[in-house]
Amino acid sequence: MPRTSSIGRHENGQNFLVNTAVIDRIIAQVAATDGPILEIGPGGGALTAPLTRLNRPITAVEVDSHRARALVRRLGGGARIIERDYLRYQHPSTPHAVVSSVPFHLTTAILRKLLREPGWNHATLLVQWEVARRRAGVGGASLLTAQWWPWYDFSLLERVPAHAFRPMPSVDGGVITISRRMLLPVAERNDYQRFVQAVFTGRGRSLAQIVAGATTLSRREADAWLASAAPKARLPKQLSAANWVSLWSEHSARSASHRARGSRQTVRRGAGASQRVSR
């Protein structure tokens, strides 16, 4: 039976990881990365203490002053403890790894902030199971995942039972990793994310109808694209990262073609008007 670490107070809505077998596997994931380590919400230090054995610079951002002071006393100079709300913390711009047992009630807010932060190249996160599953695209991706897929790879590592936490939550947890990648230029991110939202919230009785209504593809083109790229998809959440990049590329190419055609027509109309005036 796995050993357990010391149990802390249930503060700020957090359930503390106490199963050391799970802790060891999270530490192993971080050990496979490079550079300084940033821990979000260290709580009682269940991850922070073993992280110090990696002999890498560690910064832990903790919102609770009681716990921050306790960590300073416990770890001494083994880690830099910053007493601050992570949602107001700015990441360093230099490369670093991120790790966290994320408070379940703050998962979405923390993920949204993390994905917009510079510098870090790999994150290992323990989150609510349903969030972990959806972020990794298992059983269908969430809107947030689809919006960030071209720049991040989300992988599901394991399910963590509720009894691995104290106090025990009503749901299981899941460990995910997030790694940076570049399937599309960063300059296209805002337009791409609006495009994904339009498709996710589009209306239609079929995916082809939704795609045709939310993009520059005609219904016939949407049918052809789905038959070739995603024949088994029935809903936007069933499209893969590669599907989204392909669909965005098709949409962008047609948008550029429409703009070019419109510009040529405008030039021709302007030329015709000039000829009529000269007569």
From TrEMBL:
Binding site for S-adenosyl-L-methionine: N15, L17, G41, E62, D85, S101
Coiled coil (residue ranges): none
Entry-linked Pfam families: RrnaAD
The species this protein was found in: Paramicrobacterium chengjingii
Annotated PROSITE patterns: RRNA_A_DIMETH, SAM_RNA_A_N6_MT
Protein name: 23S ribosomal RNA methyltransferase Erm
Occurrences of domain Ribosomal RNA adenine methylase transferase N-terminal (ranges): 22-182
Family: Belongs to the class I-like SAM-binding methyltransferase superfamily. rRNA adenine N(6)-methyltransferase family.
Residue ranges of the region described as Disordered: 255-279
InterPro entries per UniProt: KsgA/Erm, rRNA_Ade_diMease-like_C, rRNA_Ade_Mease_Trfase_CS, rRNA_Ade_methylase_Trfase_N, SAM-dependent_MTases_sf
Listed GO biological process terms: methylation
Statement: the UniProt record of this protein carries the keyword Methyltransferase: yes
Keywords: Methyltransferase, RNA-binding, S-adenosyl-L-methionine, Transferase
GO molecular function: methyltransferase activity
